[in-house]
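Example record for the data management plan.
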Amino acid sequence: MNLRDVFPFLSHPSPISYLDNAASSQKPKRVIDRMARYYSFEHSNVHRGVYKLAEQATAMFESVRKHTARFLGDVEAKEIIFTSGTTASINLVAQAWGGDFLKAGDEILLTIAEHHSNIVPWQMIAKAKGAKVVFAPLTADWRLDVQAVKKLISKRTKIFACAHVSNVLGTIHPVRELVALAKAAGAITIIDGAQAVPHFAVNVREIGCDFYTFSSHKMCGPTGVGVLFGRKALLETMSPYQGGGEMIAKVTTDGATWNELPHKFEAGTPNIGGIIGFGEALLFLESFDREQAFAQDLALSQKFLTRLKKRKHVEVLLKDTEAWVGILSFHHTTIHPHDIAAILDSENVCVRAGHHCAQPLMQYLKVPATTRISPYLYNNEDDLERFFVGLDKVEKVLGT
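Corresponding structural encoding:
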């Protein structure tokens, strides 16, 4: 199967080189068609109706939950919570677990390379509880400093939250080792897998984390769908994050009791069509050799890297390509990233420019912003050439 052939976006009459896949990926036709079929012929609310259409919709919806559980290493289906995205999942853990168990003087350990969605929720709950947020630094080669993490973890550390892969640097953090360190100190662990799951297989049991989260839209699925894996024993101790329909067992004028897992954390009508589309995206990802596709992505990224390093005024924020998913961020010493992105756009090349929702990392690296390239399954050498033609134009127009 030629992966490029199954993405309608790539049949655009004016070819677009889409190199912003770390932000969101394009969708294969089968995902689009599956959602259209659901909304055209199969739609009903789930878990409530006793008529055939509702029962069928519920069965389809719950089959995606079971599929997701297998996809993450054969965990229990009730340990899979559907949310609106990685951000919502992290907020759920911060408010539900943190709200119940954090207290004044406790510490939450993060890394300086986190996305804002894995910083701000912890700052919010820390402020509410009188806890402290602590940041682990990077090494000189822009890798997470594991030795510093060892020193920062203490009995005060109650939560360790870390990205599996940096959305700016593309580096893969040694999450199994980090989780083991945190667990030895008695901390709960949450891994942001938004940039990892699109590229390679993840087994949460092998990682050993308490929570793991990712988003559908970065892995060929629809927007508005996220997954939170949580250990059943922990989820059962946590209060619901939101109240409303579906998450209750019984409501009276005196109060309410909660539904069983996973429904306790899924208040209201879920994104049924999106979740069914996400299930189709999982089937798509399982329909080809993901390891081979990832290797091809890395090979293309390596070509981008080699040519970028030859540019006089370009500094790539990457020291080596070991444990890396192919994301490339670079700083141009004379041209602002927004200007680079705008001129590249005139050449039908889409890249990300700015702080990438990682302002603390930008401050740490002492750069105001960067330009980011993030190839994925369907990118090829035409995209590579078009990018560098565009970059030549940038430097010609704005000077170096």
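Summary line stored alongside the record: The chain has two domains: 3-27+289-398, 31-285.
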